[in-house]
Amino acid sequence: MKYFSSVTQHVRCDPWSLLGKNLLHKADIQIEGTRPWDIRIRHPGFFKRIMLQGLLGLGESYMDGWWECDRLDIFIYKFLAHKLDEAVPGNFRDILLVLSENIFNRKSDDCHGSVFVNEYDIGYDVFTHMLDPYMQYSCGYWRKGATLAEAQEAKLKMICEKLQLAPGMRVLDIGCGWGGTAEYSARHYDVYVEGTTNSTEEQKIAQSRCQGLDITIMLEDYQDLLDDKFDRIIALGALEYLELKNYQNFFKALARCLKPDGLFLLHSTGSTELVSHVGPWLNKYIFPKGCLPSGQQLVQSIEPYFRIEDWDNLGTDYDKTLMSWFEKINESWPSLSMNYSPGFRHMLEYYLCSSAGFFRAGKIQLRQLLLCLGGEGQII
pTM of the prediction? Predict the structure, then answer.
């Protein structure tokens, strides 16, 4: 109690702390308050650290236990809803902007790099506790489901219906992960699915999951795709792996693989602003490459090869999905704690809850696009 008292006294007097406290007050966020979104500071250097180190300082200080918040998702949402990202000093605004680039990329053991490093290396056991039975590491469709499992199955059904899948069709699943989308499509719509992944671990798990179905799981990148033609293409969370400069190569490669009357469903996150890089915290703890394109950037990359037939925004669904993952991790922590440190848990909480806050504030979106061939200047 004496230590916490000295921290509180420091916050009252330190110039960094006074600046931060005044900004938080504008968003109705109190220090040592009693409401779920108020924060508790456990280290006197908290404000100085995040002002000087940006995103890395904000995230790692939470992981180190320098500050606490019962509802981190509400804290981030309120900060953005009151436009404090536009009022704070430059480096702190960059923290919040880069947080919006927090995209849910699967763990990979190849050229994409490991998603988590050192003691924060995530294992498949965490995903099995966090995700639904179809192992969907992307948002569910909550307007047709009351639980995570129902929302994810509703998402898969919606995708298959948008693509108008019919028996005998050949479907390409880019970045197929652990094979849940391929399994659902083949089992319920009697189609052949060829899934691609860059991860040997994912390939083995997906092959085991899809055994007995008309599914092939390939260890390859989109750049390795031949000119084999498919009736339908699905890409759930695949675009997030790429740098912006590679977008047109990605769409060009998929255009070559789609039959003239085919359909392509793209399920991807994006920003309301131009974001072309990720920050140091995400680079260190989540994924090493990628960006969140604005709508304009995405359209400019698509239009040379495809025509946009339909565009849905599902950001509110991702908010609910993230919080559901967070709840499942909390429920499962007693068993997971035997293999993971408290620091890992703080990292995962920060990742999921802060991302939910950004979706809730409308700073990032989940876009689901239905595409067909017909872009100007495409080379097929």
Answer: 0.86
